[in-house]
Specification:
Low-confidence stretches: 1-79, 89-107
Shape: elongated
Strand content: 35-45%
Structural class: mainly beta
Helix content: 10-25%
Largest sheet: 8 strands, mixed
Strand order of the largest sheet: 1-5-6-7-11-10-9-8
């Protein structure tokens, strides 16, 4: 029996999850794979870290003792539907395509009234014919997928946003290129009479991407499959659209993709508060971060958290790292930085031939004679995605007394 073409559409992106070459991984500076550790566990990964790594410039002053509660997490947008969890072998299939009749196969314009859909959870907005169905699944042991799918014209047209979350992030240029190159061939596995008509390396929203198009036959009808895939912070996002070849959807593929915008992610913090009983400080890191390093007395580092995409946030004792430092020194340095507001400052750090530019976000607090710097780092390209969770975490920093 011929496989349902639309079932193959929904499976798009899952097939290629394990097709990425073995070198795809994230590594620390010593080229060793990192394993996450709960934020509350003090048995951290001991990676060499200097004060300079955390302190290219100082953070903003907070002259009074800080007793700040963590920022309340923003609720998901009301347009988001409840998420369904499905198994890879039991995906809810769209309506079957049984073939178009002669009238439908004419140059028909299929009418839709697009809406602007927003997902705060995954940080994007896009034009769709209607609110999508949201499905979630573990495609493999190391890949989690969230699918946003809208159907129109009795299922003859589909718009999809696939978000692949990889356990081993795809971050280095060679791995990114390998993923993009293997994406389309892997997707055509199991598609009957598939014919590639376009595959082009390009950029999308500032990231390396691949745009593609192929035709597949179902019954006596041909369907056009268009898509674009790119990676951000080690995870993959693909936008795909499928429709009868001889039809002209009102919301075209170009309009669909051009409407796509990346947004800041929800400021979700960990459910576990990190504490240092000796110093009497408390801190709640972002939920996706684990303890990377802590308590290196010689350079003032108290703790550093990181995620697998290479973003970090840490706490530094400036009075240890910079003996003799004063608030006057800090004010002088802050005057050279961008005031982000609410006691947070932003600093751009130039890149090199081997490393991209990064953005540093800073906040400062004092307790007695001690001055603490809370600092976060992320690549310039994707920094805006993490800024809300960074500021929420910084505001959680407080003292016991």
């Amino acid at each position: 029996m011929k496989k349902s073409f639309i079932a193959c559409i929904l499976l798009f992106g899952f097939i290629g999850c394990d097709g990425t070459p073995p070198p795809v991984t994230i590594q620390n500076e010593q080229n060793a794979s990192r394993t996450p550790e709960p934020a509350g566990n003090h048995n951290s990964i001991q990676t060499e870290t200097t004060a300079e790594h955390l302190s290219f410039l100082f953070g903003p002053p907070s002259l009074a003792t800080m007793k700040v509660k963590p920022q309340e997490i923003v609720k998901p947008d009301e347009t988001e539907k409840p998420e369904m969890t499905v198994k890879p072998d039991a995906i809810e299939k769209p309506e079957e395509i049984v073939g178009l009749n002669k009238t439908e196969k004419s140059q028909e314009t299929i009418r839709t009234t697009p809406i602007k859909y927003m997902s705060r959870k995954d940080g994007f907005s896009v034009l769709l014919p209607s609110n999508p169905t949201v499905m979630s699944m573990d495609a493999t042991k190391t890949t989690h997928v969230r699918i946003y799918q809208t159907q129109a014209h009795n299922g003859l047209i589909q718009y999809n946003v696939f978000y692949h979350f990889f356990e081993k992030k795809i971050v280095n240029p060679e791995s990114i290129r390998a993923h993009l190159d293997s994406y389309l061939p892997d997707c055509l596995v199991g598609v009957d009479k598939g014919q590639i008509t376009q595959k082009t390396l390009t950029t999308f929203r500032g990231f390396n991407a691949k745009e593609f198009e192929y035709i597949s036959v179902e019954g006596d009808a041909e369907f056009l499959y268009k898509g674009i895939v790119f990676l951000i912070d080690g995870d993959s996002i693909s936008l795909t659209m499928v429709y009868p070849k001889e039809s002209t959807p009102e919301l075209t593929f170009d309009e669909f993709t051009e409407s796509f915008e990346l947004l800041p992610l929800e400021p979700v913090l960990s459910t576990e508060e990190w504490k240092d009983e000796r110093l009497g400080i408390r801190f709640t890191p972002p939920a996706d971060m684990f303890v990377l390093n802590q308590e290196r007395e010689f350079n003032g580092l108290i703790v550093m958290f990181a995620n697998h995409a290479g973003h970090t946030i840490g706490i530094l004792d400036a009075t240890v790292a910079y003996p003799g430092i004063t608030w006057s020194d800090i004010h002088t340095r802050l005057s050279e930085m961008k005031d982000y507001g609410d006691g947070v400052y932003e600093n751009m750090i130039a890149g090199t031939t081997t490393k991209p530019p990064i953005v540093q976000l800073l906040r400062c607090a004092s307790n007695g004679e001690r001055i603490y710097l809370i600092q976060a780092y992320a690549p310039q390209k994707s920094y805006f995605r993490s800024v809300q969770k960074f500021t929420a975490a910084m505001k959680s920093f407080s003292f016991d007394n």
